Structure formats: structure tokens, C-alpha cells
């Protein structure tokens, strides 16, 4: 099975606050580290009542300080919101504080609405310069040239690994052209997943960072001890997506017994289109869903979103997902041993 990683939304839930969300994220990362997950990422979002990761580099430092081996990073930084020099300084600082553990995923969306975009002082055309900004950031993180006048202190020479994130063909083309690993956001935009992966792999150019394509696939997975309980826990995320459709983005809500009474048929259709790649159920259901997704996409890595209201239930979810991985790895090991024995 491919490596498993986690994207945490650092959700602020009803009845709690941002401090609780940030400490829960660090606790979840510790749990993921013990379970053998490869990475733990958080994302840049602004002016969203239920997400506490706006100051993304600060949150990464908080999580990395509470863990010791798992890679921690941004999934991602919305680069057009920032000068590349600032991001190089921030992530260079993190790389010195936590050597060999920091990832920097880059997106070109604003991570917010148009009004907040203006508050960020972000020009509408900033996204047009995304490829140039990626190259500038990459150069600032590389060893300095002898005559280089502008240096990112302390980012220079850290060569923090860059990732390109995307939910369309554009990110796939950028990642392929620059020879960078690519993460597709199929946990909320699944429609272009397969075409984007094909573009990325077919156009990939080897680079100093990466010799061959490496594709990560984002997927919502909610695991519980029974299918029924998993479906109930999933209603929290379904309600969050319904809020996006309605243009109302409130705090994360506790699960409900009857999601059909919450949304209209049209809202259900829109939400389920965005969540079409989700895997929800008991361990056997989850294992079968993961196997099918990997077989279809050839993913090198899965970035799991397990968006559950209750923190203990979320920890249990990632534990059950890890058990699916371990069982699959043992089965693959037995198959390999049997194949060798037949030779």
C-alpha cells in the first residue's frame, strides 16, 4: 500500500475555540506519528470561522515542536498571497528548527473569498505569476550564488522540499514542468483527478529534487467500528460542505442521525459531487475503498482528511486506517514470500 499521510483542517468545533483546535491538531499529529504516518500537513485558509490554520507556518512550528519524527508541512501555502522571500524566510526558519522534517506544498488559490482577498492586499492577477513565484522561491531556498544580492536568511541553502498542489490541470502542468511532486485535491474536487494525473506523469521532467513522478491523492476517509457509525460521523463533514454551498461557513457541528433532513436534494447533489471520492465505513469497507482508489490512480501516497467532530473519534479513525495499511502490507509481504518460494 502507498504511504499514508494526513491533512488536518485544524477545525474549531461548536463549544470549543482556536486554542483547543490547535492543541488537538498537535495531539493528532503525535498519534499519527506513533501509527507510522509519513506526513502531517495543515493548510492556509483565511476568514473561515471553523479553521484555525491561517498563520500556517506558526501552526506548523507548534505541531513540529510536539512531535519528533513525522514530517510536518503546508498543504498548502497559497503562494500568490505572499512574497516568495517571506515564505523562504519562514520555512527556512522551520527547516533549521526541525531539520529534515519540513515540507512546503504550494497552491495558487487565495484560500478565501474575494472580500478577504482584498484584505490580504492580494492583487487579482497575482495567481497569473504562480509559476514564476515558485521558481523564485526555489532559488531563494537553494544555496546562494556568489553575487546574489537578496538572500532569504535563514532559508538560503535549506532546500526545503517543494510540492505543487492542485485541483485542475494547471497544477499538474507546473509540477511536471518543474519536476516536483504533485498533490491533487480530490478530497473536494475529484472530477479532474485522473486527467490531471495523466498530464503530470506524461509530461514530467526530472529535476534535482525528484527523478521520477510522485503523485499524492487527497481523499476523505472516515473510519469507525461499524459502517453505520462511520456514516454518522461523516455527517459533520457533509454539513460543512453544505455550508459552503449555502455560502454560510460556521463552526464544525456535531454529527446528526439523519443527514437527509439537513440538506435539500440539490444541495445533496452538489455536496456529493465534491465528496465523490470519499471512503466511509468500518475497516473492511475502508480497506476495499483504499485498494480500489490506489488501483485506479496508481497513487504513490494518500493524503487523508478524516474530518470528524469528536477528537477521540478522529484519533480512532486514523488508527483504524493505519490498521488497514498494516494488514495490507502484511498480506503483500506474504504474497512476495510465496512468489519467491515458487521460484
TrEMBL record:
It comes from the Bacteria. Residues 5-300 form the Luciferase-like domain. SUPFAM superfamilies: Bacterial luciferase-like (SSF51679). InterPro entries: Bact_Lucif_Oxidored, CmoO-like, Luciferase-like_dom, Luciferase-like_sf. Gene3D superfamilies: Luciferase-like domain. Keywords: Oxidoreductase. This is LLM class flavin-dependent oxidoreductase.
Amino acid at each position: 500500500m502507498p504511504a499514508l499521510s494526513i491533512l488536518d483542517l485544524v477545525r474549531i468545533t461548536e463549544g470549543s475555540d482556536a486554542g483547543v483546535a490547535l492543541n488537538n491538531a498537535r495531539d493528532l499529529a503525535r498519534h499519527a506519528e506513533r501509527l507510522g504516518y509519513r506526513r502531517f500537513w495543515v493548510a492556509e485558509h483565511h476568514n473561515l470561522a471553523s479553521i484555525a490554520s491561517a498563520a500556517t507556518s506558526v501552526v506548523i512550528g507548534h505541531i513540529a515542536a510536539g512531535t519528533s519524527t513525522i514530517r510536518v508541512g503546508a498543504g498548502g501555502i497559497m503562494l500568490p498571497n505572499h512574497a516568495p522571500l517571506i515564505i523562504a524566510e519562514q520555512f527556512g526558519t522551520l527547516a533549521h528548527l526541525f531539520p529534515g522534517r519540513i515540507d512546503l506544498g504550494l497552491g495558487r488559490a487565495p484560500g478565501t473569498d474575494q472580500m478577504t482577498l482584498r484584505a490580504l492586499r492580494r492583487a487579482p492577477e497575482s495567481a497569473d505569476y504562480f509559476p514564476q513565484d515558485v521558481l523564485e522561491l526555489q532559488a531563494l531556498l537553494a544555496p546562494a550564488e556568489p553575487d546574489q544580492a537578496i538572500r532569504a536568511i535563514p532559508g538560503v541553502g535549506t532546500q526545503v522540499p517543494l510540492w505543487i498542489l492542485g485541483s485542475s490541470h494547471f497544477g499538474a502542468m507546473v509540477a511536471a514542468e518543474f519536476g516536483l511532486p504533485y498533490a491533487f485535491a480530490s478530497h473536494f474536487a475529484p472530477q479532474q483527478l485522473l486527467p490531471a494525473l495523466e498530464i503530470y506523469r506524461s509530461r514530467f521532467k526530472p529535476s534535482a529534487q525528484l527523478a521520477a513522478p510522485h503523485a499524492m491523492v487527497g481523499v476523505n476517509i472516515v473510519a469507525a467500528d461499524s459502517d453505520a457509525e462511520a456514516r454518522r460521523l461523516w455527517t459533520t463533514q457533509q454539513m460543512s460542505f453544505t455550508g459552503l454551498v449555502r455560502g454560510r461557513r460556521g463552526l464544525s457541528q456535531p454529527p446528526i442521525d439523519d443527514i437527509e433532513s439537513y440538506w435539500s436534494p440539490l444541495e445533496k447533489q452538489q455536496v456529493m459531487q465534491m465528496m465523490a471520492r470519499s471512503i466511509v465505513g468500518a475497516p473492511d469497507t475502508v480497506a476495499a475503498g483504499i485498494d480500489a482508489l490506489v488501483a485506479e490512480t496508481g497513487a504513490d501516497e494518500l493524503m487523508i482528511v478524516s474530518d470528524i467532530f469528536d477528537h477521540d473519534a478522529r484519533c480512532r479513525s486514523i488508527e483504524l486506517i493505519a490498521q488497514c495499511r498494516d494488514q495490507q502490507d502484511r498480506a503483500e509481504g506474504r504474497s512476495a514470500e510465496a512468489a519467491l518460494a515458487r521460484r
